Amino acid sequence: MAKSGGYLADKIIEIAREHNIPIRQDKNLLQILSRLDLNDEIPTEIYKAVAEILGFYLSAQQPAAD
Q1: How many other C-beta atoms are found inside a 10 Å radius of the C-beta of residue 35?
Q2: What are the Cα distances from residue 63, in Å, to 33, 43, 46, 59, 60?
Q3: Which whole-number Å values give the CA distances from 18 to 4, 11, 24, 58, 60, in the listed order?
Q4: Residue 24, phi then psi, degrees to nearest 5
Q5: b/e map of 18-29 (b: 16 or more CB within 10 Å)?
Q6: What pLDDT score was predicted for residue 38?
Q7: pLDDT at residue number 1
Q8: How many C-beta atoms lie closer than 10 Å to residue 46's C-beta?
Q9: What integer pLDDT is reported at residue 60 of this predicted model?
């Protein structure tokens, strides 16, 4: 819904910042992902970038080790 930018995208970013949710900006990845519809498969050429984002997200969800 927010892939076109504008108010909705700005609101999502604002809420993420309010909740200390990390934000990653990658213009090249954005160009590729913005061409996809919601249920489209991820193109193989961006598997690594998407895996890095998912890995970052998952590691951020883990409690810090002592």
Answers
A1: 10
A2: 30, 32, 28, 8, 8
A3: 22, 10, 15, 20, 16
A4: -115, 130
A5: eeeeeeeeeeee
A6: 84
A7: 46
A8: 16
A9: 77
4: Cβ contacts below 8 Å, ≥ 6 apart: 34
> Low-confidence residues of the chain, pLDDT below 70?
1-5, 64-66
Instruction: Report the alpha-carbon distance of residue 12 to residue 40 in Å, rounded.
Output: 22
Task: Write down the pTM of the prediction.
Answer: 0.53
DSSP one-letter string for the chain: --TT-HHHHHHHHHHHHHTT------HHHHHHHTTS-TTPPPPGGGHHHHHHHHHHHHHHHSPPP-
